[in-house]
Every structure is written in structure tokens, then in C-alpha cells.
Amino acid sequence: MPFADILGQEKASSYLKQLVRSQKVPGALLFFGPDGVGKRLAALEFAKALNCLDETARQNGDACGVCANCEAIDKGTNPDVTFVDFTYQARLEVKKDFTSKGYAEELEKEITKQQHISVDTIRDVTAKSQQKAVGNGWKVLIIDQAQTMQGAAANALLKFIEEPPAKTVWILITNKRAAMLRTILSRCQPLSFAPLSLENVKDILTKTQADVSNVDLCAKYSAGSVSGALKAAEALDLLQAGGFGTPQGPSGVAAGLSRTLVTARQEAQAILDVLIMALHQAWINEPDENKQYAYQAMLKRFENYKRSIGRNVSPALVLETALMSLDGLNLQIF
What we know:
CATH topology of the largest domain: Rossmann fold
Strand order of the largest sheet: 2-3-4-1-5
Order of helices and strands: HEHHHEHHHEHEHEHHHHHHH
Structural class: alpha/beta
CATH architecture of the largest domain: 3-Layer(aba) Sandwich
Number of strands: 5
């Protein structure tokens, strides 16, 4: 995937291509912006461009996508490019060979437990950063969900991003720049990734053949994010299956949530996000001042419901209460 295929991020892509052409790369970059807008794709494309074996492609600031290095990075097997996320961390936690029986199931369970990038994971990747590169290109170390690094993990990373070895670059990816330590932020060159346009989201859903029933509707509730569109698709399916808009809707939608608490919380949050966007749009389009106040009050209540989902409260109970509170508003979702 060349940079041109990362839709909606032309400014960020242009800057990264310039770095590849000049080979004057900061020791640490911070990719920040909403989830699902191309930050991870851009980080991996940047790693490919820095390590591409096609000199012409590199001179253009891009990657050929077909050389041995590009293909290895796509497959996650290039020894000089490390992508750290919750899956990577879970693999460190599972004390089994990946070919052994039950490995996939145990890994999946471990992934669902991950909430923070740990200090042990940071120590693992910083040790890799000090190893000599296998090829003649760059060592690229990417940390996704970087805002989840807590004190010890962030402090363990500091000296390594401040003075990395030659031809080594760290890329930290975050959707919450403000949540990161100032000492980390001060050592990184920031690069902003903007929300995607409605057309960009629809184009990506179509090109990737995403399993969504209504591309236009999912894009409408995406908040400018492909991952947001996919969450909206799941939320819309649950609302429709549960009979949203009928007297039985509140209990039917709540009953359709997963039996797994973590997943149920995610589903309930996604449904509330869709409803909040619908309420906001209804408020904007409502000419009657009294009804505007009703929508404003409901928006405040729904923000409280969202906060409640994150606490030790039944997501099904919160969701059912939220849906019951919409009675009389005739909110249009579909």
C-alpha cells in the first residue's frame, strides 16, 4: 500500500515521504489522532519506505510494496521492524509455543485482558532497539496505544527515545495525546492525523469489502473513523435485532448484548455512541426551541450513561434505562 492509498491523510503522508527522501528522520515520532484514521497504516508504510530495496521508490519517498523487505514488513516477519500492541504483549504473556494445542484460544483470552502497555513489554522492545540491524536499512519500533503506558513503562522508554542509535526511529501511536507524560511528548516530533471525511470512510469500507449492511449509514455514525464505522455497524445491527423504536425495544436490545462482560460493555458503548450522534443531529435540525432543550437535556443524560458503562454497573441495565428514557422523542436512527 503506497502512501497515496492512505485516504484522508495527505498532509501527514507528504511529511513522511519528505523524511524518507531526505533520510533526516527524528529519533522519535508521535502519531496522534482518532482511532481508525490511518495512523497504524502510515507507521507501517513509513517503515517499508525506509527499508524498501527499490532505490527509485525510496527516492520518491515511498515503498515499492513487492520487494523482500516490504513483504516481510507486511507479514510482520522483518527483524528490523517491531510493532508493539496488545496482541504483541499478549504473546509475551502466553508461555506456550505458538504451534502447541490451545495456543490460539489462550492468546485470545490474554488479549482481552490487556489494558496497559507494561514495563516488561517496554523492556523487551528497548532491548531489541539496541540490537544491530539485520539489514542495511532502518530499525523501526512502533508502539500502539502509547497512552496506556503508565509511569514505570513510560520512564523505562525515556532514555531510549531521547538518544536512539543511528538509523533507529521510534513511532508512538496514540488517540489521547493529552494522557501521555510530558517528558515523553517533549522527546517526540508530533504528527497529527485528522478525522476522515464521510466520503473517505465510505470509500475505505467499499474498497476493503467490510462486512457492513449499509455503508452510507455506518459512515454517517463513524465520527470520521473506519473503526468507528465498524463499531457503528455492530451497534446498528443490535438495535435493529432488538426492535429499537418498539415498546419491547429497550429490553430486547439490552438482552442482545454479549454474555461476556468486557464485550457487552464495548457493545453498549457503541450503541450509546450511535444514539448520541443521532440525538446531536436531531438537536441541530430541530426548529422548535422547546424540543431543542429536550434534546440538549437528553444528550447530557446519555453522556452520564456512557460514564456509567465504564463503572462496575451492568451494561445491559444501563443500556435498557437509556433506551427507556428516549420514550416520546421519536428518535430516528435508520
